[in-house]
Amino acid sequence: MVGSDYTVSSPRATAAARDVHRWWGIVALCAYAYPALLVSSFYLTWFGAWLVLGHAPRPNLDDPRSIGLLVDVPYIATMVLMIGFPAAIVLGVVMTPVVVVRRAPSGGKRLLFGFLALAGLALLWSATLWFLRADPWDVGTWYMD
After folding, report:
1. pLDDT tier at 8 (50, 70, 90 boundaries)?
2. Between vectors from CA 32 to CA 111 and to CA 81, what angle results, nearest 5°?
3. Distance, CA of 129 to CA of 110 (rounded, Å)
4. Nearest to 93 by CA among 85, 81, 83
5. 132 Cβ partners below 8 Å, 6+ apart?
6. What are phi and psi for residue 9, nearest 5 degrees?
7. Neighbours of 145 (CB within 10 A)
């Protein structure tokens, strides 16, 4: 009986495998949501400062570190997200092919789905970096001063 596989999968092993696949999907989803979280955290900090100050925060005048607790919490969250964004990019690029191979239908469509998933991730990050670079309301300038 060469080539026969006599492994018996227990319900516990099957559940553990499902949990691993679920975690991979969650990690990939977080990698795709990270650009939106990064931009949202900048603007949440800015809107919090606007609420406390009573006017739009002005770059080089209203320091985000000294406004109050309502601004401190999103300020720290934004800083953590900024520190982690290089790792999020790498994680997204690494996890996307793993998740696509696991979930896409077999055959030639896997390559197409993988390419589209990586292109979507690149588009999300490009749009995020472009928007933060354009800085239409000087939020990044205010945050970094």
Report:
1. low
2. 145
3. 28
4. 85
5. 38, 39, 42, 140
6. -90, 130
7. 15
Are the CB atoms for 100 and 28 separated by under 8 Å?
no
Residues 32, 40: Cα–Cα separation, whole Å: 14
CA distance 62 to 53: 9
d(CA 39, CA 137): 13
Q: Judge contact between 124 and 28, C-beta under 8 A.
A: no
Q: Is the dihedral of CA 40, 46, 47, 52 positive or negative?
A: positive
Q: Which two tokens stand for residue 30?
A: 């977080």
The per-residue pLDDT of the chain, averaged, comes to 85
Comparing 105 with 35, which gets the higher pLDDT? 35
pLDDT over 80 (residue 102): no
